[in-house]
Amino acid sequence: MKRKQCPECGTMLAPTDLACPNCGFSFSGVEAPATGATTKFNLNAKLPDILLNSLNEDIKADQITYYKRLMGFSDRSDNIVFAQSYNKKQSLALIWDLLVAKSYILSFEKNGILFIGIGKSGQFTGENAYLTDLEIREFDFRYGIGKRVITIRSTKGLIKLSCPSTIKMNTFQKKNLSNLGELTDSYNTWIDQQ
């Protein structure tokens, strides 16, 4: 049985675990806070079929929006960016990130941030998570050389992510990163209203 890794703290878990016993991160469907109706998301939706088994096949806007719809989220592609766990102390950070980093597609949704797990070959892993805006205490990003660094402080802990400026065979990354300030400004408004 293939084990899965908690995207929050890195603890190895059984595939049937719905929450991490170490940090409490939930893998099950999350009820999103809404303005009246409750929406149920299915973070464990069936992975989309892969047409070609090649590098970065799932890191394409149409594949991502299709998978987001399967999970019950919006089918927008202007709110997604590719990100990897960030390790500032590693001397060969770029090479190291490619080899060992946890990778995600971040989707900035109306009531939180969807983390779609991406494997080393650039394909969906099915290890997805959702942080509601009520769980997020602080969101910040800064510019780095050839990347943006995102810091998210939530009720579940601290997450630091690196977003490269471009990705091979990808059209959305550069455009959406240039709009990251706009995406986060609207998100920060949600936080300020609480």
Tell me what the structure shows.
The longest helix is centred in the last third of the chain and has 13 residues, at 180-192. The protein is an alpha+beta fold and 194 residues long. The strands form three sheets. A seven-stranded antiparallel β-sheet has the order 8-7-6-5-11-10-9. A two-stranded antiparallel ribbon has the order 1-2. The model is unreliable at 29-38, 90-98 and 189-194 (pLDDT under 50). It has helices spanning 61-71, 93-100, 172-178, 180-192, and strands at 4-5, 12-13, 31-32, 39-40, 80-85, 103-109, 112-118, 129-132, 136-144, 147-154, 157-164. Helix content is 20%, strand content 29%. Strand 9 and strand 10 (147-154) form a beta hairpin. The chain is built from four helices and eleven strands; from the N terminus they run ββββαβαββββββαα. The protein has one domain: Pleckstrin-homology domain (PH domain)/Phosphotyrosine-binding domain (PTB) (PH-domain like), CATH 2.30.29.30. The N and C termini lie far apart (42 Å). It is globular and about 40 Å long.
